[in-house]
Structures are given as C-alpha cells and as structure tokens.
C-alpha cells in the first residue's frame, strides 16, 4: 500500500538532512563525508562524519560529537582529521581519528579563534591551518574593514598560517602578514605553500604568494585576483591553478581557471573561451555552504560549471584544452572529490535535496538516501521551466510552481521571489520555502533577470544600472506569466527577496503598487549607509553604483529606495539579522521607521544573530519563525 502523503510544513525545515563534503581516501577505497541534521527541540544542528566503503557498500557513522565537519584524509589513508565547533563552548577544535586503531577521535588543537581552512602536510607529520585570534570585547579600530559578515570583528589581527606538529603538539606561526591569509595549499613535496593574501581594504581581492615552508621566504607570483576558493598545485608542483577573475568587468566578471608558473611568468587564462561562469551560485535552502574549488587529477582539472539554472561538473584537459561536462542535466552539483577515474559528488534537483553520488566507468550511482523517508510522506510540487522574450528581445529563463492540489477552475494568489547577488541564480536547487508556499495555496514565480549568473558576462553586467533593465525583466516576466497562466489572480500578488532581492523588493514597492504584499529580507534601502557601514560597501558600491558618495552623490541617492518611501502603498515586512555585516540591519530599520512616520502598513522582524543569510544558516528556531512570519504576512494580505 502506498504511504499517505501530506503537504510540506514549516517544521519540515528541521526534518531534511544535509549530506555533503565528500573526501576520497588516498587508496580510493573509502569516502568520508558530512551528515548534518537539525535538532529543533534543542535549537541546534548535529553534524557528524560518515564513511562509505566502496567495496562493501556500507555506510558507517564515525563521529558522534555532533559538531564535526571538513574531513581530510592523512596521506597514509589510515586516519583523518576534522574540525568541530560547538557554539555553546565558543571553541574550534582540530581532531584526528585513527581508523586502524578504531579508537575515539583525539583533539590535537583547540582555540576560541577561527580555523577557516586546514591541510595535512604530505609527510603526515604536521597539519597546516589558517587561524584568527580570539575576539576582544573592546574594539580598537584604525582601518577598514573592521568586520566581515559571518566572521565578526577582524580588528584584533589578521588571519595567519600556522603549523601543528602531530607528535609534539607544538604550534608554529609561519606568516606575519598585515592582512588576512584567505586561503592556501601545500605543494605535493611539502616544501612550499601558495598563499592568498587579501588586499588591505578590499578583502575580495588577493595577491598570490609562494612561500618556502621551512625558511619563510616569500615571493609574489600573481596579483589582483578575486577568488573565494583555495588554490591547487599541479601534480608535478610546477604550476598553481587559480579559480577567479581580475575584475575585468568588476563584480559581474566570470570566474576562470588561471595557470601560474611557479618559476615565474604571467598567469594564463585556460577558460577564456568558456561562455559560462565557473562556480556555484545556485539558490538552495537545504544545503551546506561549501567553497568548492577546482581539483587537478592527472591530466584533468575538474570544476563546477554554472550553465543556465544548472550547476554541472566539468573538466578541462591540460594538454588539449578540451572542456567536457562530466555530470550533466538539470541538476545542482554542490561539491566533489576525485581519485583517478573515481568521482564522488553531491547533487540535488529542484524536487530532491542533495545526496551523495559516485561515478565510475559504469556510470552514475546514488550512494546515500538520507531524505527518502521524508520525501515518501510529503507532496513535492514540480517546478515548470519557461522562457520569455524581454522587450529588447533577450531570452529570460524562469520557473513557476503551481499550488499543491491545483484546480484549473480556481484563481490563486502568487508570490514572486527575487534572488540576491545580483550575480546568483535560481534553477535546479531544492527550495523548501518554495514548496511551503505551494503547499499553502500559492503559485511561486522565480526568474533569472539581467544581472543573474548562469549566462554571459554581458547578461550579468548591470553595474551602475540597478533597478533598470533588471526591474524591466522582472515586470515583463510577471506580465508574461499572468497572460500565460490566467488562473493567477493579478489582484493577489506578493513579492519577496533576499539581499539584492531585498533591494529589488524595496525598489519595486517604490515604483509600482501592483503587489498586495511584500517582504524584504536583508535588503538595501540606502546606498549611502551601505557604503559606510558594511563590510563590502566601500568597494562593492564603488563598482556597482559608481564611485564614492562624495564623487557621485546623485547616483547614490537615485539608487536608494528609502528616499521614495512616500510612494509606498504596499504593506511590507522587513526581516533582518542584527549581526548582518553585509547589508546592515540599519537598511531595514531606516525604511521601516520612514514608513511608520508616514503611517504606512509595515512590520519589522529582527533576529538576534545569524548573519546575512540567517534564513538558511541561522538557528533552527530563527529559520522556523522566519518562515512562519512570512506565511502569516502573505496570508493576511493575499488571502482576503
């Protein structure tokens, strides 16, 4: 008998399991990965390391502490290291687990600071790691930026590279950089390390240095790269592989793969002819946030390819330069590991959360099934893809989800969802929030307008023109949907978005009254304070708005929805985390205050902590309350 299904609920955000971070052992026989569960009653997450045995097909849980992540195999394959961080203790630990002895994990280092990245030395005798010292209660600030979203205050000192001796426990500081070491990688011989050192006031940009691990001698081998993933050494240690760009088109630039000779020479762009971006900017609210970079295995460099609404896994041949897609289709690949001809990757779709898969010469096979139990008992609506032609004849991609229990003889309210970035995208990523709206009688509409990732650089480049062609695409897309799907009630439309999507929501309610309700999350209302109070404002706004406020005040005012608050007629709720340093909480507070002074219908929901994407990574109670409040707001104004 088929199991009875039910509609998705708010609380299901805590029932989905996140599976990711595969790491293949040196001999290719085992795969370590992370399983993360949400413990709603305890208001926390439970994260542990599991192992998949290729030979037996068995899955085994190896840790039980509930805060383990980032597994990394020792070179001998007999043990692995991992990180743990318990929020209630305020400590980050490095642990080592010996598989041969079958003993409990042993802590080898603990700190109240941050450990963004760690790496085994090739001889297995040391662990190298990045470390920022403990934060202080009193902040002495003499430069910018002094805080970074998700990291907190950084004025206590730069992130440095340290080396831990496994045998003695001695810790040695290898760098004394004035600015953060943002990422690093050890050579296969272990004698050198390549470092990304952040620019002083623009931490998105890095210069690349080669360091002799023993002597500390350092030399620059590249400069001015915007990159968010670690570098990679060639198998022969003669080249460094970089994923990033040099801001040829500012923040709209596509990432490429760059090859830098260790012995000197100019960086060479290996993917300059590639139409699409490299990396993962796909929206998915049930996943781990992973900085997956390229992997160089033998003659191939593997990387994530952002094509339309999909994130695929591709590779480029070092000798021929030929690029081919390895994992194709309407999918969202989140991370991967490669060993010889064996590939393990995490993959989801718009109707199924991320699980672990493997690929061999025989094809693809699913390894994990952690979410199957829940999926058997809930209705999952299938998004319908469409394209429409904008007024300038550009094709725009979008999706619509019909309400669960859809009846074509009824009319339904609809919610327009706008992504952030603006260079991110919607597509084949699972969105619990979208399913929740569909389960509650709403149609859900989402588009990739101009500015989005997944297409050309021309398509993505809306710098200095926020609220123009992007706004047109969204409104024209909405018109197309209303004409194509007459069962949507144009009098009951809602709009919501996060970050840039919050800005666009603010922009929309100051430019049209066609929406009956709006919710702006972590958005921007005032470009002046965005420039002056956020971690990226001084360089991000300079690029996307144009110049600084004192040199281009007119444009800053033009692109600030706050200054048109008197036009707002749409009931709007603002949601913001108090510790959002990317688009500060003042953005929502200012707009809310202005609307209350004007007597407009508005509401402000402040969450104590969680950063810029609190709705996805914040405490379970915050995530649940956020969704509950959003449903209540839309129900109040769209179901009358």
How would you describe the overall organization of this protein?
This protein has 640 residues and is α+β, with helices and mostly antiparallel strands. 16% of the residues lie in helices and 36% in strands. Strand 15 and strand 16 form a beta hairpin. Helix 6 packs antiparallel against helix 7. The two termini are 39 Å apart. The relative contact order is 0.09.
Brief overview, please?
A hairpin with a 5-residue loop joins β19 (232-233) and β20. With 640 residues, the protein is an alpha+beta fold.
Which of globular, elongated, flat, extended, rod-shaped describes the shape? globular
Structural class of the secondary structure composition? alpha+beta
Rounded to the nearest angstrom, the radius of gyration is 24 Å
What portion of the residues fall into strands of 2 or more residues?
35-45%
Number of helices: 11
Unreliable residue stretches:
none
Sheet with most strands: strand arrangement: 32-33-35-34-36-37-38-39
Helix content: 10-25%
Sheet with most strands: 8 strands, mixed
- Total count of strands: 39
Question: Roughly what is the average pLDDT, rounded to an integer?
Answer: 95
How widely separated are the two ends?
A: 39 Å
Itemize the secondary structure elements and their pairings:
Blueprint: E1 18-24, E2 30-39, E3 44-53, E4 59-61, E5 68-73, E6 79-86, E7 91-98, E8 106-111, E9 118-120, E10 126-131, E11 147-148, E12 152-153, E13 160-165, E14 171-173, E15 181-186, E16 192-198, E17 205-212, E18 218-226, E19 232-233, E20 239-244, E21 256-261, E22 268-269, E23 277-278, E24 295-297, E25 300-307, E26 310-317, E27 323-327, E28 332-339, E29 342-348, E30 355-360, E31 363-366, H1 372-375, E32 384-389, E33 395-401, E34 412-418, H2 432-439, E35 443-448, H3 457-460, H4 469-484, E36 488-498, H5 500-509, E37 517-521, H6 527-533, H7 537-546, H8 553-558, E38 572-577, H9 586-597, E39 602-607, H10 614-617, H11 620-638
Parallel strand pairs: 34-35, 34-36, 36-37, 37-38, 38-39
Antiparallel strand pairs: 1-2, 2-3, 3-4, 5-6, 6-7, 7-8, 9-10, 10-13, 11-12, 13-14, 15-16, 16-17, 17-18, 19-20, 20-21, 21-22, 23-25, 24-25, 25-26, 26-27, 28-29, 29-30, 30-31, 32-33, 33-35
Helix pairs in contact: 6-7
């Amino acid at each position: 008998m088929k199991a009875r299904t039910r509609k998705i609920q708010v609380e299901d955000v805590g029932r989905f399991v996140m599976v990711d971070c595969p790491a293949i052992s040196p001999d290719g026989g085992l795969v370590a990965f992370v399983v993360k569960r949400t413990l709603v009653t305890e208001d926390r997450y439970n994260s542990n390391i599991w192992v998949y045995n290729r030979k037996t097909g068995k899955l085994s849980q190896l840790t039980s502490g509930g805060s383990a992540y980032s597994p990394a195999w020792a070179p001998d394959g007999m043990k692995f290291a991992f990180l743990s961080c318990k929020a209630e203790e305020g400590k980050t630990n490095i642990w080592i687990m010996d598989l041969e002895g079958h003993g409990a994990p042993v802590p080898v280092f603990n700190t109240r600071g941050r450990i963004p990245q760690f790496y085994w030395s090739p001889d297995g005798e040391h662990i190298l790691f990045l470390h920022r010292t403990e934060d202080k209660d009193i902040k002495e600030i003499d430069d910018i930026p002094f805080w970074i979203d998700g990291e907190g205050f950084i004025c206590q000192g730069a992130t440095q590279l340290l080396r831990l001796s496994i045998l003695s426990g001695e810790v040695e500081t290898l760098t004394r950089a004035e600015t953060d070491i943002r990422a690093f990688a050890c050579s296969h011989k272990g004698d050198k390390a390549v470092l990304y050192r952040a620019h002083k006031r623009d931490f998105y940009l890095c210069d690349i240095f080669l360091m002799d691990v023993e002597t500390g001698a350092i030399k620059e081998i590249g400069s001015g790269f915007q990159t968010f993933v670690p570098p990679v050494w060639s198998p022969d240690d003669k080249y460094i592989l970089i994923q990033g760009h040099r801001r040829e088109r500012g923040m709209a630039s596509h990432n490429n793969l760059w090859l830098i000779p260790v012995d000197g020479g100019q960086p060479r762009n290996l993917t300059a002819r590639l139409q699409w971006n490299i990396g993962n900017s796909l929206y998915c609210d049930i996943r781990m946030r992973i900085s997956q970079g390229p992997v160089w295995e033998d003659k191939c460099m593997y990387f994530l390819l952002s094509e339309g609404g999909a994130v695929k896994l591709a590779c480029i041949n070092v000798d021929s330069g030929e690029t081919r897609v390895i994992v194709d289709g309407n999918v969202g690949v989140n991370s991967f590991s490669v060993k010889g001809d064996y590939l393990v990757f995490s993959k989801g779709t718009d109707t199924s959360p991320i699980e672990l898969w493997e690929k061999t010469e025989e094809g693809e096979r699913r390894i994990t099934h952690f979410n199957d139990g829940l999926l058997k008992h809930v209705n999952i609506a299938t998004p319908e893809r469409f394209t429409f032609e904008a007024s300038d004849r550009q094709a725009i991609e979008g999706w619509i989800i019909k309400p669960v229990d859809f009846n074509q003889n009824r009319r339904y309210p609809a919610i327009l969802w706008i992504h952030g970035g603006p260079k991110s995208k919607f597509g084949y990523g699972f969105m619990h929030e979208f399913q929740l709206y569909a389960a509650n009688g709403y149609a859900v509409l989402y588009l990739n307008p101009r500015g989005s990732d997944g297409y050309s650089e021309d398509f993505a480049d809306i710098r200095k023109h926020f609220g123009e062609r992007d706004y047109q695409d969204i409104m024209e897309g909405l018109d197309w949907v209303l004409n194509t799907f007459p069962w949507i009630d144009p009098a009951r439309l809602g709009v919501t978005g996060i970050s840039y999507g919050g800005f666009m929501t603010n922009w929309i309610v100051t430019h049209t009254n066609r929406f009956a309700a709006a919710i702006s999350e972590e958005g921007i209302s005032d470009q002046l304070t965005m420039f002056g109070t956020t971690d990226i404002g001084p360089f991000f706004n300079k690029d996307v708005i144009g110049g600084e406020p004192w040199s281009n005040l007119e444009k800053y005012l033009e692109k600030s929805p706050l200054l048109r608050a008197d036009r707002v007629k749409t009931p709007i709720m603002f949601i913001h985390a108090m510790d959002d340093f990317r688009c500060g909480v003042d953005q929502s507070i200012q707009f809310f205050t202005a609307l209350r002074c004007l007597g407009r219908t508005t509401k402000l929901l402040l969450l104590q902590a969680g950063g810029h994407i609190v709705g996805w990574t914040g405490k379970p109670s915050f995530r649940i309350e956020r969704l509950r409040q959003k449903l209540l707001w839309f129900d109040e104004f769209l179901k009358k």
